[in-house]
Write a structure and sequence with these properties.
The complex is a heterodimer of chains A (284) and B (136).
Chain A (H helix, E strand, L loop, with lengths): L3 H38 L1 H16 L19 E6 L9 H12 L5 E6 L1 H9 L3 E6 L11 H13 L5 E11 L2 E10 L15 E3 L2 H77 L1
Parallel strand pairs in A: 1-2, 1-4, 2-3
Antiparallel strand pairs in A: 4-5
Helix pairs in contact in A: 1-6, 2-6
Chain B lengths: L2 E6 L4 E7 L1 E6 L2 E5 L6 E5 L2 E7 L2 E7 L2 E6 L2 E6 L2 E3 L5 H16 L4 H27 L1
Parallel strand pairs in B: 1-9
Antiparallel strand pairs in B: 1-2, 3-4, 3-6, 5-8, 6-7, 7-10, 8-9
Helix pairs in contact in B: 1-2
The chains are: A alpha/beta (284), B alpha+beta (136).
Chain lengths: 284, 136
């Protein structure tokens, strides 16, 4: 049976843990509000941009495609952009992300751009080539973090080093549901039928001048949206994980407290019995 | 017949309603859009945008983006858009000074670009806000 002293120590430890997890939960909750707002408010923009880019593609000459849209069948190499949090302690998020990465990884040669320490560690342990690695940070990522990434993508994709660019990140569905997802961002897929009418559309300036700008912007926004999604997911799953941890710690404290009280009571009873016993002896 | 206008920025949907006329600066010069305009896709440049509803007109400051007109539906994808009434002059002045100060310091190329864009944005807002004052 545990002694009173060890029980006391264990209660103390559990209550310290619960304090830490409670604090982390509260920090995550406050960050989540901002993150959720950012992730959700940019969604209509990205969706519209996505629609626009795909609609414009139907109206252009199929022989004269933008380099971003050309499929390269002779090259097999892929470029992955993996977005993960820097820090752990956020429930199953990192594990789920890792599972998704492993699912997509095979023995073929591939390049990786990692954002976040967790992704960097994993890809490094797989012995894959990391082209560049960026920290994710613990605050809402600013838009300019996208530029170095698009620069590398341009270099690899337009330089004919890779045939596809994929992004692996975590999608923020709601506070209680986040799922890993992967998305091919380049080449931009041509969608044959969007149900658009074939009425004539005017382009100002020329479509060949407009399209590169539009696609460039599209690329930046898609990547940034993944950043925001990942950040919101991280905060949400950390908040939930820490809430569970706090609840568990409180449960443990309650159990230990009960055991402590019982032990203490037992000890007192024993002492009383001892005293009673010894005084009986003295009386006789 | 009216135009259905949607102004969408990365941070929020600024406006989504029916209007009669839209005047906006594009890469090819300022254009006015009336109902039954031909379908159009164009790039917009930073400047002031005027939306007319009946006799009432609203002034907006917009920075670059794209404009799509498709069957009387107008979608404006702007990096930033704000109604002239919502511009807070004091705040914008502050942002302007901050950007100017940042540009004087030695900066990396990226930071300089960001500061420059910030400065352009605040100057534009000040211009639109002043114009708004004159009109009232």
């Amino acid at each position: 049976m545990a002694t009173l002293l060890t029980l006391k120590r264990r209660i103390k430890t559990a209550s310290n843990v619960s304090k830490t997890t409670k604090a982390m939960q509260m920090i995550a909750a406050s960050k989540l509000k901002k993150a959720q707002e950012a992730a959700e408010s940019s969604k209509p923009y990205v969706e519209k941009l996505d629609f626009l880019s795909k609609a414009i593609e139907q109206k252009i000459d199929k022989d004269n495609l933008n380099p971003y849209m050309t499929a390269k069948n002779d090259i097999k190499t892929k470029l992955f952009i993996v977005i993960s949090p820097d820090k752990g302690l956020c429930g199953g998020m990192v594990t789920n992300l890792i599972r998704e990465i492993l699912r997509l990884t095979n023995n073929e040669k591939a390049y990786y751009i990692t954002v976040g320490k967790k992704a960097e560690k994993l890809v490094a342990s797989l012995n894959k080539e990391i082209v560049a690695s960026f920290p994710f940070g613990t605050t809402l990522p600013p838009f300019k973090t996208v530029f170095p990434i698009t620069k590398i993508i341009d270099e690899y994709f337009l330089g004919n080093k890779v045939s596809q660019v994929l992004i692996i990140s975590t999608k923020f569905n709601s506070v209680f549901s986040q799922e890993p997802f992967s998305n091919t961002i380049l080449p931009v897929k041509l969608e044959e039928n969007l149900g658009q009418n074939n009425s004539k559309t005017l382009f100002e300036p020329d479509v060949n001048l407009l399209l590169p700008d539009l696609l460039q912007h599209y690329l930046e926004m898609v990547i940034y949206q993944s950043f925001l999604d990942s950040f919101a997911s991280e905060q949400a799953s950390r908040m939930i994980a820490m809430k569970n941890a706090t609840d568990n710690a409180l449960d443990i404290i309650e159990e230990l407290r009960l055991e402590y009280n019982k032990t203490r009571q037992e000890k007192i009873t024993n002492e009383l019995l001892d005293i009673g016993g010894s005084s009986q002896v003295a009386y006789e | 017949m009216k135009l259905f206008l949607e102004i969408i920025t990365p941070t929020k949907v600024v406006l989504s309603e029916e209007v009669d006329e839209l005047t906006i600066p594009t890469a090819e010069g300022e254009i006015s859009v009336l109902p039954n305009h031909v379908n159009l896709l164009t790039k917009i440049t930073p400047g002031e945008m005027i939306i007319r509803k009946g006799n009432k007109s609203d002034l907006f400051a917009v920075t670059g983006g794209f404009l799509e007109i498709s069957n009387n539906k107008v979608s404006l994808l702007a990096d930033y858009a704000i109604h002239a009434d919502d511009i807070e002059i004091a705040k914008v002045e502050e942002a302007k000074e901050r950007a100017q100060k940042a540009m004087k310091e030695k900066l990396t190329e990226d930071d300089f670009r960001v500061a420059n864009a910030e400065l352009a944005k605040s100057l534009l807002q000040l211009k639109v806000a002043r114009k708004r004052k004159v009109r009232v």
